[in-house]
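## retry 2 of 3
previous attempt timed out at serialization; input unchanged, resubmitting
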Amino acid sequence: MSKKIRILSLDGGGIRGIITCVILKYIEEELQKLDNPNAKLGDYFDLVAGSSTGGLLTSILLFPDKNKKAKFSVEAALDLYAKKGESIFNVSLWEHMINPFGLFNEKISQRNLEKQLLQVFGDLQLQHFIKPCLITSYDIGQRKAKFFTSHEAESTLENFYVRDVCRATSAAPTYFEPAKIKSLYGQEFTLIDGGVYANNPALCAYAEARKIAFSKILGDKEKIDYPAINDMIIVSVGTGEVHKPYTFEKFENAGKIKWIGPLIDILLSANVETVDYHLTKMYETLGPRNQKNYYRLMPQLKNASPEMDDTSQKNIYELIQAGLFYVDQNREMLREIAKKLIKNK
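## retry succeeded, writing output
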């Protein structure tokens, strides 16, 4: 029998990516119990997609070791977020004074982010990822979506330094300046966070998978080329539901400045929900067994802040607790996912 194509999709959400790490860590631990004590999650998916913080996680999961297997465990990614998050999102008192609330310039300096990305990824190139990926960004010069795909990076036109890919996908407007990067061929791009159009990149991942010859790229004859939706297992992970209400009275006579923050919040949430709706309906057209191969893992934030840049120790603790609460409430489903990943390895 042919093996299904296993797709992992990771939403954007800044420091809330900690919740994603906690959930993925549990799945990885189940893989270690059921299949291999040294299992790493990156080896159990055939395509990984990510936007913004999800793009950073994608890059960590697909980082190769000397045997072209996954180098990092999910725990390593979680440590990276918990330990380096504060230095990435830190804003000095002086920056607060000259740029209150990010009204005049981007809210966060990109220097710390670029320094951390260089330390983690060095000169790693996109083409060296262990599996196909799709990492989103948006080209504000050409006014079109830009997808970074490792399986198409054999050409220098489509090959980039991973540190630059991560800088581009995480360049969230009002938080970081746009990323000006070059391909290894020398073509220059001015890019911002892919979350502006695909904060939940699961539908983009589905579309990308449809055009990939997986048996050739993965060197596995049992993998399906150009899979249809009934040939896919999609695991889509969110960074926490945001339920901040906006009343008519508050926005009855609101101007542009008052709308900026809420509008960004609404657009990001609306995209996440719409993609989930489309995929749910697509899988409902399949038979009873294949209908169950789409998983949308969206935890509640509980006591954690919905802000993408709140790196206080208290909030990091609450994000971890929110992830643990979701794991505790969904142990059977997460174990079921692990079993399907192993079965289609």
